User: What shape does this take?
Amino acid sequence: MRTKVEVAEDLYWVGAVDWNVRDFHGYSTYKGTTYNAFLAVDDKITLFDTVKKDFKNDLVHNIRKVVDPAKIDYLVVNHVEPDHSGSLPEMMDLIKPEKLICSPRGKKAIIDHYHREDWPYEVVKTGDEISLGKRTVQFIETRMIHWPDSMFSYLKEDAILIASDGFGQHWATSERFNDEVDASELMHHATKYYANILTCYSPLIRKLLAAVQDMGLEIKMILPDHGLIWRDNPMQIVQAYDEWSRQVAKRKAVIVYDTMWHSTEMMARAVEDGLIESGVSTKLMDLSVNHRSDIVTEIHDAKAIVLGSPTLNNGMLPRMADILHYLKGLRPENKLGAAFGSYGWSGEAVKLMNQIMEETKVKLVHPGVKLQHVPTHEGLGKCVDLGREIGAAVKAEV
Ligand code: FEO
Assistant: This one.
């Protein structure tokens, strides 16, 4: 049997590692994830969060390494999305806690999900504190990070922040702490997580970070509910969130394209030439081989998005419609954009891509280039010029 994982004195990781999950509502979790839960052993033994329903046995097994689950007094639900609360009904039956602690919206969400008005709810708001004995827990509501019910639990004496979906990464590992894994891979997963889950909440994250700063909380460790615990230099991820939430862009462009008979692909490479000539770092991403969540991760710190699709049935190719729909929902800020594509006879794709970029508040820097059937050398020259114009616009702002 594996040994118990002690995070701090009398505080244990008791969560589950999901090596096999590959899709998280449209996000490709190609390296799995974890559902973290934490157990504080004190006068009032307290479990912070549960796990996805299928992993209830792992949670119980890990708790039993420390205490009999029936001895748990308080159960804190920081977030009701089923990857954290799916096992709540079974855990409530097993533990029968004295208190089920949640935010006001958390109580509503728990009842909406599990239809149990009779559980012993203790509703807490920002700034409320509960003593466990030698430890005090302070609660901070974090609406829309990731759902309206979300909150953080701050262990005051230890200066440990249990951060629910905040600061997480979808990455299954045998290690539990950030200083035990490769730092650049960890930051890649943290970036992908932010780009795909939290980008649309960036204005709220900016406010939350300011509020936490005003509260003057010391933070010695951050315990997210997904991925590695930030034990070494936890403020690095807070600083990264500060930068990501302000959507600070680099001198970088991402060309995203799909192609039917390689004409739009030829155009993409010509646009790439123009961008590189302008001195802008450029990524070329073919929608047939890149997952939408990896594309969004590249777009995250790019100043410009350049989209290419031929026209199909008076529209764009389906994979372009997919990424545009996904991107629009994430509401990226401060991006520049342009579009291009080949066509046979009607040629609506460029206009439609432009329209969705405008709806997404992407600033168009060019009306777009469309070329009939197979591009000529002169036609490709227009694409190189498009790349140059975008490059100049990027350099004017970054
Ligand atoms: Fe990890 Fe919003 O759930």
Q: What stands out?
A: The mean pLDDT is 97. The chain is about 35% helix and 25% strand. Residues 79, 81, 83-84, 146-147, 165, 225-226 surround MU-OXO-diiron (CB under 6 Å). The CA atoms of residues 106 and 344 lie 54 Å apart.
